[in-house]
């Protein structure tokens, strides 16, 4: 009578290098290689997915997560402005400093330091955060609040915004001047 499943003979489970033992070693080795390849491929896929998702993050989203913190903004033609980020919106940011409030369109922002590593997704933005640069200018014009316009060439104009056109603003000081919105790098409140 034969010993089924027993440990007798050289081919049994307890024997020296059985065929089954070698088979299990080969399959285990293949399984480890397959897992390593899967992990490497999955890691690349996750990295690609993360980079693809991050490509959807906007400057406004990053700045919205930074509201309330101290940041430094490098503004075209002006240099660095440091202060507390009070607001961020779709096309502009509001920086509060001891001397005055500054509003800068993103088109004039060259760099931002001190921003949060997080971002606020667009679906979570408030209605105010959805207002663009022209909306801010229209509201400033409606308030008739004196302000200073800073231009990309380093120039400054003081007065009151009276009307906002499609691609320019009207500023009344001693006389009315038209300023292309593309030339405006910052709007500041009157000096404190």
Mind explaining what this structure looks like?
By secondary structure, this protein is α+β, with helices and mostly antiparallel strands. Helices cover 28% and strands 32% of the residues. It has two domains: 17-56; 59-189, SH3 type barrels (Roll), CATH 2.30.30.600. The protein has helices spanning 19-54, 59-64, 133-143, and strands spanning 70-75, 79-88, 92-96, 101-105, 109-113, 146-151, 156-164, 168-172, 176-180, 184-189. The protein has a ten-stranded antiparallel β-sheet with strand order 5-1-2-3-4-10-6-7-8-9. Strand 1 and strand 2 form a beta hairpin. The longest helix has 36 residues, at 19-54.
Radius of gyration: 32 Å
Specify the biggest β-sheet.
10 strands, antiparallel
- Summarize the helix and strand pattern as letters: HHEEEEEHEEEEE
Question: Tell me, what's the shape?
Answer: rod-shaped
What is the straight-line distance between the termini? 107 Å
CATH topology of the largest domain, by name, is: SH3 type barrels
Mean pLDDT: 85
Tally of alpha and pi helices: 3
CATH class of the largest domain reads: Mainly Beta
Described by its quaternary structure, the protein is: single chain
